[in-house]
């Protein structure tokens, strides 16, 4: 399977992300490995080359200009799955110190093969997000935490904000309509040491409307957070 490299280059450029020939080759190899591994384990329901370019690659790259990540920033992609958006960030920005966190070992084995094939370095972390948030090696260690998930922003914040250092930020990739989630998450942001800075809204051709809430970490998270996942689900922060 081959992707249209020019379509990817142009699509990324629309968002101010310049992909050189090395990056484009890496994305092509990534797509090929994704399809190869997808026959063995369920990594993605998206299988058409143009859809992979739009719905995985460009969708993952579009937030980068909004994040303004400094050189060598420490970034964690929570629940990374097949590597979105974290691997796309790293291909565009190989300087990033990236951690790819997932609770499914097979997905991390896939990502380890991708990293080796692409000649890139990142940490693959086999752990649940709430465990990482209570582990000193990861708690409040990152300049940026991100996730591309359908989880409610309130619960997602409890998983991710404890990983962010004071002065850093949490920026999950979300669907377009976010006003209700934001309202319901306000108390959680405050209790976790975060503050909503702004919400970037944008349209990606072939994908649709997207929202990128950017939460700044303004104070340390209380040691009681994150709680076990069952508690997070049963008693959301209000």
The shape, in one word, is globular
Structural class designation? alpha/beta
Mean pLDDT: 96
- Radius of gyration, in Å, reads 17 Å
Written as H for each helix and E for each strand, in order along the chain, the element string is HHHHEHEHEHEHEEHEEH
Number of helices: 10
Low-confidence stretches: none
| Proportion of helical residues | 40-55%
Distance between the termini: 47 Å
How much of the sequence is in beta strands?
15-25%
The largest sheet is: 8 strands, mixed
Count of beta strands: 8
Report on the structure:
The chain is of the alpha/beta class and 238 residues long. Strands 1, 2, 3, 4, 5, 6, 7 and 8 form an eight-stranded mixed β-sheet that branches. α1 runs parallel beside α3, α2 runs antiparallel to α6 and α8 runs parallel beside α9.
Reconstruct the topology from this structure:
Blueprint lengths: L4 H9 L7 H18 L10 H13 L2 H4 L6 E5 L7 H7 L4 E6 L2 H14 L4 E4 L2 H4 L9 E5 L6 H8 L3 E7 L3 E2 L3 H13 L2 E11 L3 E10 L11 H6 L4
Parallel strand pairs: 1-2, 1-4, 2-3, 4-5
Antiparallel strand pairs: 5-8, 6-8, 7-8
Helix pairs in contact: 1-3, 2-6, 3-5, 8-9
What does this entry show, briefly?
The protein is an alpha/beta fold and 238 residues long.
Overview features:
alpha/beta; eight-stranded mixed β-sheet; 238 residues; single chain
